[in-house]
Amino acid sequence: MLKGIRYPLTSLFLLIALFLLFPSRLSAQIKYTIKGVIKDSVSGETLIRASVKILEQDKATSTNTYGFYSISTGAGDYTLQLSYIGYRTVLRKVSVQGNQNLSFELAPDKQLKEVVVSSRASNEQITRPQMGLDKLNMEGVKNIPVLLGERDILKTIQLLPGIKSAGEGNSGFYVRGGSSDQNLILLDEANVYNASHLLGFFSTFNSDAIKDVSVYKGGMPAQYGGRLASVVDITMNEGNRKEYTAEGGVGLIASRLKVEGPIKNGKGSFMLGGRRTYADLFLKLSSDTALSKTVLYFYDFNAKANYKLNENNTIYISGYFGKDQLGLNKSFYFNWGNSTATFRWNHLFSDKIFSNTSLIYSDYDYAIENLSEGSDFRVTSIIRDWNLKQDYQYFASSSHTLRFGINASHHKIRPGEISSSSSSDVNNKVITSRQGTEWAMYISDEWKPSNSLSLNYGLRASSFALFGPGTIKKYDGNGSTVSSKEYKKGEIATSYFYLEPRFAASLKLSGNSSVKASLTRNTQNLHLLSNSTASLPTDTWVMSSRNIKPEIADQVSVGYYKNFFKDNFEFSSELYYKKMENQIDYKNAANLRGNEDVESELLFGKGRAYGVELFLKKRYGKYNGWLGYTLSRTERSFDGIDEGNYFPAKQDRTHDVSLVNIYNLSKRWTLSATFVYNTGNAVTYPSGKYQLDGHTEYYYSERNGYRLPDYHRLDFGATLNGRSNKRYKSSWTFSVYNLYNRKNAYIVEFKDNPDDLKRTQAVQTSLFGIIPSVTWNFKY
Question: Cα–Cα distance between 263 and 269 in angstroms, integer?
Fold first, then answer.
């Protein structure tokens, strides 16, 4: 099936490329190209999305992920304006008589208070067609108070409209009605399957090692695929090209350290960062034997290096390794972790064609051990990817930027392997591994036909194939086996192919405002199975198969955007509707772990999500912050649940409010506070009960027909900067999580009232009350 469409598909993409470029060719004339790289003058780090503008012609472009820009114009004398938020704007006179290579360095503006969240240009949200996009400024993240004082980018994005927390203190999140596995999380292009430490209380990302974060909630560009709900694209720091530095912090529960510096006279740089918690060290001091022999910690390590071979070639190597360890007094042991590695080669074919080739490795695994004598066993599971990407950017003209590329991924999932000693009463068991490949081609064009209209349109073609070896079964709606076939190694068991159109448009209105619209389709072939109230490291990943069809989401959105008071304030409103097909749920009392026939326990249906997101942000000044509000619904429908009627998904919350405040009290003191409120999660409560053999059994009539109590919390933070020193900087960060000690419901369970067994009582479990913390930060 896939082989038969290979050549027609290639021809289709070539025709589309010619069509996209055709408007610019009609007006072709003798033009020259100015290209180069824009960097930070202090560290030498490249600046992403820095603006380059030719003032005399009102032409503009921005730097890509690697700080590269290319802009074309006719011969003449011009003024280049170079700007980046939080940096001093630079004006440079240039005389253009031919192609030129001009690189620049911008100096941080110490007098300008940086944007809290967004690192984009002041009017980018007005002029660019992209919708549902937020960009985090890492300098702003450090001022936002979070649990236990650790800066956390995933908890910070939960404060944005349309993004909902997966639970109290949890780094998991839901975007526009999608489930947690429908978020594509990339670290230097490598897929991160479990982005949490300590069961979700920390994210895997050390903020000191992060350079840039882009969050796409809708209208994803064609270069992204494989998930339905969102993309979180994270780029690590490249390292200081000019001098050796070290920075880090010591907190109550964790410490971190980062070192960076130049390689061979600034032709390259490196960055090394590490972090570890040490709750286990305090537990060892306990006189309680059960606690003193408990293991509870995580560690992670980031590394990145780059080297410029010549003017046209630069290579990058980056990696991440993280591990969690949890053990209980020689009776139980549990560990899980991620490993990623990325090799990238940047190459300039010409002044207008930028190429990036990436080879990417990603691995997620966990192991559970029961150490009890006579019943010892060990359960292991892995999901491992190899990914090859080839991306091109063609700066065709000042109004056209063409992107196209190809992506090939190989997935291997080993759902579970049980091993035990010869004296154990637990039998060894191996669940057959699954292997599959995903291929994708994409092409897109960002075209500005006029000063008021901007378009971004493209197409992504994706395919998936499931391979042997192994026995692949087909089940009916009752979970009974219909057919079973043994497939040899490399033999295709099933395959799927989809076209995913992407379109976005922005129309600029008078008064520095615009309206936008977008339409996008996404498909997903890797699925997370979970019947717990929160995502766990042991939840099972599966691939599309003969039973599990690729998930599909079609999303349409419209919005209004406005900047006012000299771009000091930013307002946006987005209305969206998302239709989802081939959604996955589970039967009542389903066994999802260690089950060879897990697909027989699943139900398949459809979903829908719709809502409106409002966002108001103050960008500059001694006080800045934002207010976000989301009004939304997300529902599912399955033939085997509630007679096929739509019911609320567990992540359905009608109202979601976040308020972030940051006030620069003086040169040394910065105060911050966040307030969050949301409607309680949809949950399934018993509708009645009965006695069976002396035990109480509960009867459940409808899925997610009830709500947990509403959630709200106030956090407070304060940062004290040390006295200025040219070689050394330090600060103290104080924070209080849940300032007014709200007992928010994490779980509500129903039990017989011990004083009257005929009555039932609801027992609420809360995780956190008020939690103060303090961290000392330093930089040399």
Answer: 5
Nearest CA-CA partner of 213 in 147, 274, 155: 155
Q: Give 77-128 pLDDT, tens digit per residue.
A: 999 999 888 788 899 999 998 999 999 999 987 655 444 445 555 677 888 8
Determine contact, residues 446/129, Cβ cutoff 8 Å.
Answer: yes
Q: How many domains does the structure of the chain reveal?
A: 1
Helices then strands, counting H and E runs in the chain, come out as: 6, 51
Token pair 């307002």 in the structure block, residue: 571
Length of the chain: 780
Q: Quick one: pLDDT at residue 549?
A: 95
Amino acid in the structure at residue 275: R
746, amino acid identity: Y
- Alpha-carbon gap, residue 35 to 72, rounded angstroms: 9
Other CB atoms within a 10 A radius of the CB of residue 37 amount to: 20
pLDDT, mean of each 10-residue run, the chain (780 residues): 44 51 51 91 90 87 90 91 87 91 87 49 77 81 76 88 84 90 94 86 88 90 94 94 93 91 92 89 71 82 96 96 85 88 95 95 90 77 95 90 95 85 76 91 93 93 94 85 90 95 93 92 92 65 92 96 88 96 82 75 93 92 91 93 90 94 90 94 82 75 87 93 83 91 86 76 83 90
Q: Produce one character per residue of 510-519: b if its CB has 16 or more CB atoms within 10 Å, e if not.
A: eebebebbbb
- C-beta of residue 550 within 8 angstroms of C-beta of residue 582: yes
In a domain, 30, yes or no: no
CB distance 275 to 248 below 8 Å: no
Name the strand (E) or helix (H) holding 457. Answer: strand 453-467
Determine the Cα–Cα distance for residues 443 and 449; give it in Å rounded to an integer.
Answer: 19
Who contacts 380 (Cβ-Cβ below 8 Å, separation ≥6)?
365, 366, 367, 368, 414, 416, 417, 419
Q: Which residue has the tokens 């398949």?
A: 604
Which residues partner with 310 through β-bridges? 313
Q: Is residue 269 part of a domain?
A: yes
For the record, the structure tokens of 572 come out as 């946006």
734-768 pLDDT per residue, tens: 999 999 999 998 888 887 777 776 777 778 888 88
Taking the CB of residue 441, how many other CB atoms lie within 10 A of it?
19
User: Does 565 fall in a domain?
Assistant: yes
106 forms bridges with which residues in the sheet?
40
Whether 771 contacts 737, CB under 8 Å: yes
Rounded CA separation 723/727 (Å): 11
Of 387, 299, 308, nearest in space to 341 by CA: 387
d(CA 315, CA 352): 19
Q: What is the CA radius of gyration of the chain?
A: 27
User: Domain limits at 677?
Assistant: 133-779
Tell me the whole-structure pTM to 2 decimals.
Answer: 0.90
Does any domain span residue 109?
no
Q: How far is CA 622 from CA 87, 116, 446, 625, in A?
A: 17, 11, 36, 10
DSSP string, 332-367: EEEEEEEEEEEEEEEEESSSSEEEEEEEEEEEEEEE
* Contacts of residue 49, Cβ cutoff 8 Å, sequence gap at least 6: 62, 63, 84, 119, 120, 121, 124, 135
User: The domain spanning residue 569 has which CATH number?
Assistant: 2.40.170.20
One-character DSSP codes across 747-766:
EEEEEEETTEEEEEEEEEE-
The tokens describing 207, both together, are 């903020």
Residue 285: other Cβ atoms inside 10 A: 8
Tokens at 322, concatenated? 């993280």
